[in-house]
Amino acid sequence: MNIGQFPQTRLRRNRHDRFTRRLVSENTLSTDNLIWPIFVTEGTGAVTDVSSMPGVQRVSLDRLAAHVEPAAKLDIPALALFPITPASLRDEAGTEATNPDNLMCRAARLLKKEFPEIGLIGDVALDPYTSHGHDGLIEDGYVVNDPSVEILVKQAVNQAAAGIDIIAPSDMMDGRIGSIRTALDVSGLVNTRIMSYAAKYASAFYGPFRDALGSGGLLTGDKKTYQMDPANTDEALREVALDLSEGADMVMVKPGMPYLDVIARVRQEFAVPTFAYQVSGEYAMLMAAIQNGWLDRDRVIMESLMAFRRAGANGVLTYFALDAARLLRA
Ligand code: PBG
Q: Which of this chain's residues are annotated to bind Mg(2+) (predicted)?
């Protein structure tokens, strides 16, 4: 018998049965890896659909506990909160961001009371509060750095004082992590963690999120003078290095799926807790195909999330968090 006619190695052998596929599996996805972003709105009795994000809703505070209950039952570790601010409360300077009774703070207090075991992540940036929809203050048509940091610091302390466990600056101003860390410590909030949106790109994939917040129509121009150029990766490593040196406990790459290479490089270079944001546009894209029957819902949700794990992400902010947790439990 001519042994040469057989392949020496058959990688298909390990794929033959489910049991070996399980044994040789290199990565896992669990509920521990899921963070659920939620949109809160003023008023009462309001649960409204975000049209470009089928299945995602904006919820008023009186409905919030019922909305979050399934996440608590499924043991999802953390929520990321996003407030929708009515135009009447928005101004040039995003003043509402520092109001101790703003929607974000009221939502945080309510959730901490109802679900003390769930971690709360607070986005820090001025775009929910500014009349122009930018993440910082504008002078002569330019989003200025240092004056923006001053108000972002106040926003962060305000949120932490209301019970937000993890401050997540998404504004991309330079030096804000260090300033926020110092201000938190001075305020006695030494255990408030910081998850920096370290590598956040000026991306077209945020469109549906801006619809959800109602900041899309307000936005003048684009965010290219502070968010990163999609062409760059070395720069992402510099952003991450700086944020870590300023005291970030965890870092994030955003968007997610089109930027898996960035996640992989960050994870390999720094070996620190690294998160990915599967953003609104990624959700909208997958949902559009799912609703058309072009993609298999359950499989594509799980595959998209496993891809983040394979790239090295510890966890994923995903609008599919509830669906994924249910599929993992089934
Ligand atoms: C605000 C912020 C944005 C997102 C999270 N925080 C939008 C933006 O930068 O314009 C996008 C999230 C998503 O698209 O799901 N700074």
A: 239
Is 6 among the domain residues? no
Residue at 26: amino acid letter: E
pLDDT value at position 46? Answer: 86
φ, ψ for residue 161, nearest 5 deg: -65, -30
Q: Which whole-number Å values give the CA distances from 71 to 34, 42, 147, in the listed order? A: 10, 22, 38
Average pLDDT, the chain: 96
ipTM of the complex: 0.97
Residue 23 phi/psi, 5-degree rounding, is -65, -35
| Active-site annotation holder among 113, 200, 223, 224 | 200
254 carries an active-site annotation: yes
Which residue positions form the known binding site for Mg(2+)?
A: 239
> Is 8 contained in some domain?
no
The number of domains in the chain is: 1
Note whether residue 16 is domain-resident: no
Residue 279 CB less than 6 A away from ligand 1: yes
Instruction: State whether the beta carbon of 35 lies less than 6 angstroms from ligand 1.
Output: no
Q: State residue 219's pLDDT score.
A: 87
What does residue 195 show for φ and ψ, rounded to 5 degrees?
-110, 105
Domain that holds residue 303: 29-329
- Say if ligand 1 is within 6 A of residue 170 CB: yes
Task: List the beta bridge partners of residue 142.
Answer: 139
Please identify every stretch of the chain with a pLDDT value under 70, giving residue numbers as ranges.
1-3
Q: What pLDDT sits at residue 3?
A: 64
Question: Does the active-site annotation cover 73?
Answer: no
Q: Strand pairing of 250-254 and 142-144? A: unpaired
- Say if ligand 1 is within 6 A of residue 259 CB: no
Write down the pTM of the prediction.
0.96
Q: Are 281 and 257 in contact (CB under 8 A)?
A: no
